[in-house]
Write a structure and sequence with these properties.
Elements (H helix, E strand, L loop, with lengths): L2 H26 L24 H12 L18 H7 L1 H4 L3 H11 L3 H6 L5 E3 L5 E4 L2 H20 L9
Antiparallel strand pairs: 1-2
Helix pairs in contact: 2-5
Length: 165
Amino acid sequence: MGFEQLAALKEQLAKQAKGESRAKTRRATPKASARPNKPVSKPVNGPAKPVDPVLQAIAKLQKRFPQTFPKNPAPKVPLKIGLFEDLVQQAQALGLTEPVLRDAIRTWCRGTRYWTGMVEGAARVDLAGQEAGQVSKADANRAHYLQAQRAAHALSRPEPASKPG
């Protein structure tokens, strides 16, 4: 084999290696339509912000117990008294810690969407979505009071000043 033949063979092998390298890069790069495994909040300017662990916990609860933790726009249902203790028993299976579970339940039960369902005599639900008691008059009154407090607080806040244009 002569020198010219060796040079031609070397050039051919280099082109072949470069083509294989490009093919591997294309396979390793996800397609634009592919979805990432975890939702990541990516602001336009700056680094990605971590997702709130309470929101992640609520998402896990909604996935595992859809009857008990319905997704918006469905109305929230009143939860069984003592539901937190039932969840603590399943915390490891859910991959959640007790403090995160506590914060998730606190967040879930705070707000107009939950308080609206807290009507005297309404059924409370367990983790299976089955009836487990009823909303008492005192609980319904507290929910109504909290809703009124939030509305009053929103009305008492001053309007933000408009920016000069």
